[in-house]
Amino acid sequence: MPVNRSTFLRRGVAAIAALPLLTLAACGYGSDSKDDSSKAKVAAGAEKIDGLDSVKIGYFGNLTHGTALVGVNKGYFQKALGATEAKYQVFNAGPSEIEALNSGSIDIGWIGPSPSINGYTKSKGTNLRIIGGSASGGVKLVVNPDKIKTLKDVKGKKIATPQLGNTQDVAFLNWVADQGWKVDAESGKGDVSVVRTDNKVTPDAYKSGSIDGAWVPEPTASKLVAEGAKVLLDEADLWPDKKFVITNIIVSQKFLKEHPKAVEAVLKASVETNKWINANPDAAKAAANAQLAIDSGKALKPEVIDPAWKSIQFTNDPLASTLNTEAEHAVKAGLLEDPLLTGIYDLTPLNTVLKAAGESTVDDAGLGVK
Protein backbone atom coordinates (compact mmCIF):
# COMPACT_ATOMS: atom_id res chain seq x y z
CA MET A 1 0.00 0.00 0.00
CA PRO A 2 1.37 3.48 -0.87
CA VAL A 3 2.07 5.61 2.15
CA ASN A 4 1.74 9.30 2.65
CA ARG A 5 4.99 11.21 2.25
CA SER A 6 3.60 14.65 2.91
CA THR A 7 4.34 17.00 5.74
CA PHE A 8 1.01 18.58 6.61
CA LEU A 9 0.76 22.19 7.70
CA ARG A 10 4.52 22.37 8.38
CA ARG A 11 5.00 25.07 11.05
CA GLY A 12 1.24 25.34 11.42
CA VAL A 13 1.07 21.93 13.07
CA ALA A 14 3.00 23.17 16.08
CA ALA A 15 0.83 26.26 16.28
CA ILE A 16 -2.36 24.23 16.22
CA ALA A 17 -1.11 21.67 18.72
CA ALA A 18 -0.27 24.44 21.16
CA LEU A 19 -3.86 25.65 21.37
CA PRO A 20 -5.33 25.13 24.86
CA LEU A 21 -8.18 22.75 25.57
CA LEU A 22 -11.36 23.82 27.31
CA THR A 23 -10.61 21.40 30.13
CA LEU A 24 -7.98 18.74 30.72
CA ALA A 25 -8.50 15.23 31.95
CA ALA A 26 -5.89 13.28 33.84
CA CYS A 27 -4.66 11.80 30.56
CA GLY A 28 -3.83 15.33 29.38
CA TYR A 29 -5.78 15.16 26.11
CA GLY A 30 -9.46 15.94 26.68
CA SER A 31 -12.15 16.14 29.29
CA ASP A 32 -14.07 13.08 30.41
CA SER A 33 -17.77 13.23 29.63
CA LYS A 34 -19.75 13.69 32.82
CA ASP A 35 -22.55 11.44 31.59
CA ASP A 36 -22.84 8.30 33.73
CA SER A 37 -26.20 7.22 32.31
CA SER A 38 -24.62 4.76 29.86
CA LYS A 39 -23.75 2.37 32.69
CA ALA A 40 -27.42 2.05 33.61
CA LYS A 41 -28.34 1.12 30.01
CA VAL A 42 -26.39 -2.16 29.87
CA ALA A 43 -28.94 -4.89 29.23
CA ALA A 44 -29.17 -7.72 31.72
CA GLY A 45 -27.17 -10.70 30.53
CA ALA A 46 -25.23 -8.66 27.97
CA GLU A 47 -21.77 -9.91 27.05
CA LYS A 48 -18.53 -8.06 26.43
CA ILE A 49 -17.57 -7.31 22.83
CA ASP A 50 -14.23 -8.85 21.80
CA GLY A 51 -13.59 -9.47 25.51
CA LEU A 52 -13.05 -5.75 26.09
CA ASP A 53 -13.78 -4.06 29.41
CA SER A 54 -14.27 -0.73 27.63
CA VAL A 55 -14.14 1.14 24.33
CA LYS A 56 -12.89 4.72 24.56
CA ILE A 57 -14.69 7.17 22.27
CA GLY A 58 -13.69 10.78 21.57
CA TYR A 59 -15.70 13.67 20.15
CA PHE A 60 -15.96 17.48 20.20
CA GLY A 61 -18.60 19.54 21.97
CA ASN A 62 -19.75 20.90 18.58
CA LEU A 63 -23.09 20.44 16.85
CA THR A 64 -21.21 19.12 13.81
CA HIS A 65 -20.43 16.16 16.09
CA GLY A 66 -24.14 15.68 16.67
CA THR A 67 -24.05 11.95 15.93
CA ALA A 68 -21.70 11.43 18.85
CA LEU A 69 -23.60 13.83 21.13
CA VAL A 70 -26.94 12.12 20.48
CA GLY A 71 -25.45 8.62 20.51
CA VAL A 72 -23.97 9.26 23.94
CA ASN A 73 -27.07 10.94 25.32
CA LYS A 74 -29.54 8.32 24.08
CA GLY A 75 -27.33 5.38 25.00
CA TYR A 76 -26.89 3.99 21.46
CA PHE A 77 -23.17 3.27 21.89
CA GLN A 78 -23.59 1.53 25.22
CA LYS A 79 -26.47 -0.57 23.92
CA ALA A 80 -24.40 -1.73 20.94
CA LEU A 81 -21.36 -2.54 23.09
CA GLY A 82 -23.30 -4.71 25.56
CA ALA A 83 -21.33 -5.32 28.77
CA THR A 84 -18.29 -3.52 27.35
CA GLU A 85 -18.35 -0.06 28.88
CA ALA A 86 -18.50 2.95 26.55
CA LYS A 87 -16.13 5.60 27.90
CA TYR A 88 -16.07 9.11 26.49
CA GLN A 89 -13.64 12.01 26.20
CA VAL A 90 -14.56 15.47 24.91
CA PHE A 91 -11.97 17.43 22.92
CA ASN A 92 -11.61 21.01 21.78
CA ALA A 93 -8.88 20.60 19.15
CA GLY A 94 -8.14 18.05 16.44
CA PRO A 95 -4.42 17.64 17.19
CA SER A 96 -5.15 16.69 20.80
CA GLU A 97 -7.63 14.03 19.68
CA ILE A 98 -5.13 12.60 17.18
CA GLU A 99 -2.51 12.51 19.95
CA ALA A 100 -4.96 10.69 22.20
CA LEU A 101 -5.67 8.16 19.44
CA ASN A 102 -1.96 7.61 18.88
CA SER A 103 -1.34 7.05 22.59
CA GLY A 104 -4.29 4.69 23.06
CA SER A 105 -6.18 7.11 25.30
CA ILE A 106 -9.07 6.76 22.86
CA ASP A 107 -9.85 3.99 20.38
CA ILE A 108 -12.39 5.64 18.09
CA GLY A 109 -13.16 9.31 17.48
CA TRP A 110 -15.38 11.80 15.71
CA ILE A 111 -13.16 14.41 14.05
CA GLY A 112 -12.89 16.81 11.11
CA PRO A 113 -11.22 16.10 7.75
CA SER A 114 -8.11 18.27 8.16
CA PRO A 115 -6.96 16.63 11.44
CA SER A 116 -7.64 13.24 9.84
CA ILE A 117 -5.46 14.08 6.85
CA ASN A 118 -2.82 15.61 9.13
CA GLY A 119 -2.71 12.58 11.42
CA TYR A 120 -2.54 10.15 8.53
CA THR A 121 0.18 11.97 6.63
CA LYS A 122 2.38 12.70 9.65
CA SER A 123 2.40 8.99 10.54
CA LYS A 124 3.08 8.00 6.91
CA GLY A 125 -0.22 6.19 6.84
CA THR A 126 0.30 4.05 9.93
CA ASN A 127 -1.86 5.46 12.71
CA LEU A 128 -5.52 5.78 11.71
CA ARG A 129 -8.27 4.86 9.30
CA ILE A 130 -11.42 6.77 8.45
CA ILE A 131 -14.19 4.21 8.89
CA GLY A 132 -17.35 6.25 8.40
CA GLY A 133 -19.08 9.52 7.84
CA SER A 134 -21.05 11.55 10.33
CA ALA A 135 -21.97 15.04 9.13
CA SER A 136 -21.97 17.43 6.20
CA GLY A 137 -22.32 21.20 6.16
CA GLY A 138 -22.76 23.49 9.14
CA VAL A 139 -20.12 26.04 8.09
CA LYS A 140 -20.86 29.68 7.24
CA LEU A 141 -19.23 33.00 6.49
CA VAL A 142 -20.90 35.45 8.87
CA VAL A 143 -20.08 39.15 8.85
CA ASN A 144 -20.78 42.54 10.38
CA PRO A 145 -23.54 43.87 8.10
CA ASP A 146 -22.47 47.48 8.78
CA LYS A 147 -19.01 46.80 7.34
CA ILE A 148 -19.65 44.04 4.79
CA LYS A 149 -22.72 44.03 2.56
CA THR A 150 -21.53 41.94 -0.40
CA LEU A 151 -18.93 39.23 -0.99
CA LYS A 152 -16.68 41.79 -2.68
CA ASP A 153 -16.66 43.82 0.55
CA VAL A 154 -14.73 41.01 2.31
CA LYS A 155 -11.55 42.29 0.65
CA GLY A 156 -9.55 44.38 3.11
CA LYS A 157 -11.46 43.10 6.14
CA LYS A 158 -10.48 40.97 9.16
CA ILE A 159 -12.05 37.52 9.02
CA ALA A 160 -11.61 34.90 11.74
CA THR A 161 -11.05 31.19 11.20
CA PRO A 162 -10.68 28.67 14.06
CA GLN A 163 -7.04 27.58 13.61
CA LEU A 164 -4.20 27.79 11.13
CA GLY A 165 -4.70 24.94 8.68
CA ASN A 166 -7.91 23.61 10.19
CA THR A 167 -10.81 22.60 7.93
CA GLN A 168 -12.49 26.02 7.89
CA ASP A 169 -9.18 27.87 7.53
CA VAL A 170 -8.33 25.87 4.41
CA ALA A 171 -11.82 26.40 2.99
CA PHE A 172 -11.64 30.16 3.51
CA LEU A 173 -8.15 30.44 2.01
CA ASN A 174 -9.39 28.52 -1.02
CA TRP A 175 -12.41 30.80 -1.38
CA VAL A 176 -10.17 33.88 -1.10
CA ALA A 177 -7.92 32.52 -3.85
CA ASP A 178 -10.96 31.89 -6.04
CA GLN A 179 -11.82 35.60 -5.73
CA GLY A 180 -8.38 36.42 -7.18
CA TRP A 181 -7.12 37.84 -3.87
CA LYS A 182 -3.72 37.09 -2.32
CA VAL A 183 -3.13 36.01 1.28
CA ASP A 184 -0.01 34.51 2.85
CA ALA A 185 -1.40 31.31 4.33
CA GLU A 186 0.84 31.10 7.39
CA SER A 187 0.78 34.76 8.47
CA GLY A 188 -2.79 35.41 7.33
CA LYS A 189 -1.72 38.76 5.87
CA GLY A 190 -2.79 40.00 2.45
CA ASP A 191 -5.84 41.27 0.60
CA VAL A 192 -7.87 39.83 3.48
CA SER A 193 -6.58 39.57 7.06
CA VAL A 194 -7.16 36.01 8.28
CA VAL A 195 -7.30 36.09 12.07
CA ARG A 196 -6.93 32.65 13.67
CA THR A 197 -9.23 32.72 16.70
CA ASP A 198 -10.44 29.91 18.94
CA ASN A 199 -14.17 29.35 18.41
CA LYS A 200 -14.95 29.89 22.06
CA VAL A 201 -13.62 33.48 21.97
CA THR A 202 -14.75 34.42 18.45
CA PRO A 203 -18.10 35.89 19.61
CA ASP A 204 -16.27 38.21 22.02
CA ALA A 205 -13.82 39.18 19.28
CA TYR A 206 -16.76 40.06 17.07
CA LYS A 207 -18.46 42.09 19.79
CA SER A 208 -15.25 44.02 20.46
CA GLY A 209 -14.84 44.86 16.77
CA SER A 210 -11.44 43.15 16.48
CA ILE A 211 -12.83 41.03 13.62
CA ASP A 212 -15.29 41.93 10.89
CA GLY A 213 -16.59 38.42 10.36
CA ALA A 214 -15.73 34.73 10.56
CA TRP A 215 -15.73 31.53 8.50
CA VAL A 216 -16.75 29.10 11.23
CA PRO A 217 -18.68 25.91 12.03
CA GLU A 218 -21.87 25.66 14.04
CA PRO A 219 -22.80 26.66 16.63
CA THR A 220 -20.23 29.50 16.48
CA ALA A 221 -21.78 30.91 13.30
CA SER A 222 -25.23 31.14 14.88
CA LYS A 223 -23.76 32.60 18.07
CA LEU A 224 -22.39 35.46 15.94
CA VAL A 225 -25.75 35.90 14.22
CA ALA A 226 -27.34 36.18 17.66
CA GLU A 227 -24.90 39.06 18.27
CA GLY A 228 -26.10 40.86 15.15
CA ALA A 229 -23.94 39.30 12.43
CA LYS A 230 -25.36 38.28 9.05
CA VAL A 231 -24.82 35.05 7.11
CA LEU A 232 -23.12 36.13 3.89
CA LEU A 233 -22.32 32.66 2.54
CA ASP A 234 -23.13 29.05 3.43
CA GLU A 235 -20.16 26.86 2.47
CA ALA A 236 -22.55 24.13 1.33
CA ASP A 237 -23.46 26.34 -1.63
CA LEU A 238 -19.89 25.95 -2.94
CA TRP A 239 -20.04 22.14 -3.17
CA PRO A 240 -21.72 19.75 -5.63
CA ASP A 241 -25.08 18.63 -4.24
CA LYS A 242 -24.35 21.02 -1.34
CA LYS A 243 -22.55 18.21 0.50
CA PHE A 244 -19.02 18.12 1.96
CA VAL A 245 -17.49 16.24 4.86
CA ILE A 246 -17.29 18.21 8.09
CA THR A 247 -17.07 15.28 10.53
CA ASN A 248 -15.96 11.68 10.03
CA ILE A 249 -15.20 8.69 12.24
CA ILE A 250 -11.63 7.50 12.72
CA VAL A 251 -10.14 4.51 14.51
CA SER A 252 -6.69 3.41 15.55
CA GLN A 253 -5.39 0.91 12.99
CA LYS A 254 -4.20 -1.30 15.87
CA PHE A 255 -7.66 -1.25 17.47
CA LEU A 256 -9.35 -1.95 14.12
CA LYS A 257 -7.14 -4.99 13.53
CA GLU A 258 -7.42 -6.41 17.04
CA HIS A 259 -11.09 -5.62 17.81
CA PRO A 260 -13.17 -5.65 14.61
CA LYS A 261 -16.39 -6.63 16.40
CA ALA A 262 -16.11 -3.64 18.72
CA VAL A 263 -15.56 -1.34 15.73
CA GLU A 264 -18.64 -2.78 14.01
CA ALA A 265 -20.64 -2.29 17.20
CA VAL A 266 -19.75 1.41 17.38
CA LEU A 267 -20.53 1.84 13.68
CA LYS A 268 -23.86 0.05 14.15
CA ALA A 269 -24.67 2.51 16.93
CA SER A 270 -23.65 5.44 14.70
CA VAL A 271 -25.88 4.25 11.85
CA GLU A 272 -28.81 3.76 14.23
CA THR A 273 -28.19 7.18 15.77
CA ASN A 274 -28.16 8.93 12.39
CA LYS A 275 -31.37 7.15 11.42
CA TRP A 276 -33.03 8.35 14.61
CA ILE A 277 -31.68 11.90 14.19
CA ASN A 278 -33.05 12.19 10.67
CA ALA A 279 -36.43 10.74 11.68
CA ASN A 280 -36.73 12.86 14.83
CA PRO A 281 -34.91 16.18 14.18
CA ASP A 282 -36.47 18.14 17.05
CA ALA A 283 -35.95 15.39 19.64
CA ALA A 284 -32.43 14.85 18.32
CA LYS A 285 -31.65 18.55 18.60
CA ALA A 286 -32.84 18.47 22.21
CA ALA A 287 -30.72 15.39 22.96
CA ALA A 288 -27.61 17.00 21.46
CA ASN A 289 -28.20 20.16 23.48
CA ALA A 290 -28.74 18.13 26.63
CA GLN A 291 -25.41 16.38 26.11
CA LEU A 292 -23.68 19.71 25.48
CA ALA A 293 -25.07 20.88 28.82
CA ILE A 294 -23.77 17.75 30.54
CA ASP A 295 -20.32 18.05 28.98
CA SER A 296 -19.83 21.82 29.23
CA GLY A 297 -22.29 22.89 31.91
CA LYS A 298 -24.22 25.11 29.51
CA ALA A 299 -26.89 24.41 26.91
CA LEU A 300 -27.29 26.49 23.76
CA LYS A 301 -30.11 29.03 23.55
CA PRO A 302 -32.93 28.38 21.04
CA GLU A 303 -31.89 31.32 18.85
CA VAL A 304 -28.50 29.65 18.44
CA ILE A 305 -29.25 25.93 18.23
CA ASP A 306 -32.36 26.16 16.02
CA PRO A 307 -30.71 27.68 12.91
CA ALA A 308 -27.45 25.84 13.55
CA TRP A 309 -29.07 22.40 13.65
CA LYS A 310 -30.96 23.01 10.41
CA SER A 311 -27.74 23.65 8.49
CA ILE A 312 -26.15 20.27 9.33
CA GLN A 313 -26.88 17.03 7.47
CA PHE A 314 -26.18 13.80 9.34
CA THR A 315 -24.98 11.02 7.07
CA ASN A 316 -23.20 7.67 7.17
CA ASP A 317 -21.46 8.52 3.90
CA PRO A 318 -17.92 9.85 4.52
CA LEU A 319 -18.18 11.84 1.26
CA ALA A 320 -14.66 10.66 0.43
CA SER A 321 -14.34 12.61 -2.79
CA THR A 322 -14.83 15.86 -0.88
CA LEU A 323 -12.07 14.95 1.58
CA ASN A 324 -9.76 14.54 -1.40
CA THR A 325 -10.88 17.94 -2.71
CA GLU A 326 -10.24 19.52 0.70
CA ALA A 327 -6.71 18.10 0.59
CA GLU A 328 -6.27 19.67 -2.85
CA HIS A 329 -7.42 23.00 -1.41
CA ALA A 330 -4.72 22.73 1.28
CA VAL A 331 -2.12 22.09 -1.42
CA LYS A 332 -3.38 25.13 -3.35
CA ALA A 333 -3.04 27.24 -0.20
CA GLY A 334 0.54 26.05 0.32
CA LEU A 335 -0.27 24.16 3.52
CA LEU A 336 0.05 20.60 2.23
CA GLU A 337 2.60 18.87 0.02
CA ASP A 338 2.20 15.71 -2.07
CA PRO A 339 -0.90 14.28 -0.35
CA LEU A 340 -0.90 10.53 -1.05
CA LEU A 341 -4.10 9.53 0.73
CA THR A 342 -4.53 5.99 -0.59
CA GLY A 343 -5.39 3.78 2.36
CA ILE A 344 -6.86 6.48 4.58
CA TYR A 345 -10.29 4.78 4.35
CA ASP A 346 -11.44 1.32 5.36
CA LEU A 347 -15.18 1.28 4.81
CA THR A 348 -15.57 -2.50 4.89
CA PRO A 349 -16.92 -2.59 8.49
CA LEU A 350 -19.38 0.24 7.78
CA ASN A 351 -20.64 -1.35 4.57
CA THR A 352 -21.13 -4.62 6.45
CA VAL A 353 -23.29 -2.76 8.97
CA LEU A 354 -25.19 -0.87 6.25
CA LYS A 355 -25.96 -4.05 4.32
CA ALA A 356 -27.26 -5.70 7.49
CA ALA A 357 -29.48 -2.67 8.08
CA GLY A 358 -30.81 -2.76 4.53
CA GLU A 359 -29.20 0.60 3.66
CA SER A 360 -27.09 1.71 0.72
CA THR A 361 -23.36 1.11 0.96
CA VAL A 362 -20.82 3.96 0.58
CA ASP A 363 -17.74 4.57 -1.55
CA ASP A 364 -14.13 5.46 -0.66
CA ALA A 365 -13.42 7.38 -3.92
CA GLY A 366 -10.42 5.17 -4.59
CA LEU A 367 -8.75 6.10 -1.29
CA GLY A 368 -9.39 2.82 0.49
CA VAL A 369 -7.08 0.10 1.73
CA LYS A 370 -5.77 -1.93 -1.20
Could you characterize the architecture of this molecule?
The structure is a single chain. By secondary structure, this protein is an alpha/beta fold. It is 39% helix and 17% strand. The chain contains 15 helices and 12 strands. The protein has helices at residues 10-17, 37-40, 66-73, 76-81, 94-103, 113-122, 167-178, 202-208, 220-226, 253-258, 260-279, 281-296, 302-310, 320-333, 348-356, and strands spanning 31-32, 54-60, 85-91, 108-111, 128-137, 139-143, 158-161, 193-196, 213-217, 230-234, 245-252, 312-314. The strands form 2 sheets. Strands 1-3-2-4-11-5-12 form a 7-stranded mixed β-sheet, sandwiched between helices. Helix 7 links the parallel strand 7 and strand 8. Helix 11 (260-279) crosses helix 12 (281-296). It is globular.
Question: Top keywords for this entry?
Answer:
15 helices; disordered N terminus; 12 strands
Along the chain, the helix and strand elements come as HEHEHHEHEHEEEHEHEHEEHHHHEHH
Strand order of the largest sheet: 1-3-2-4-11-5-12
Radius of gyration: 20 Å
Which structural class best describes the helix and strand composition?
A: alpha/beta
- Rounded to the nearest angstrom, the distance between the terminal CA atoms is 6 Å
Task: Write the topology of this structure.
Elements: H1 10-17, E1 31-32, H2 37-40, E2 54-60, H3 66-73, H4 76-81, E3 85-91, H5 94-103, E4 108-111, H6 113-122, E5 128-137, E6 139-143, E7 158-161, H7 167-178, E8 193-196, H8 202-208, E9 213-217, H9 220-226, E10 230-234, E11 245-252, H10 253-258, H11 260-279, H12 281-296, H13 302-310, E12 312-314, H14 320-333, H15 348-356
Parallel strand pairs: 2-3, 2-4, 7-8, 7-9
Antiparallel strand pairs: 1-3, 4-11, 5-11, 5-12, 6-9, 6-10
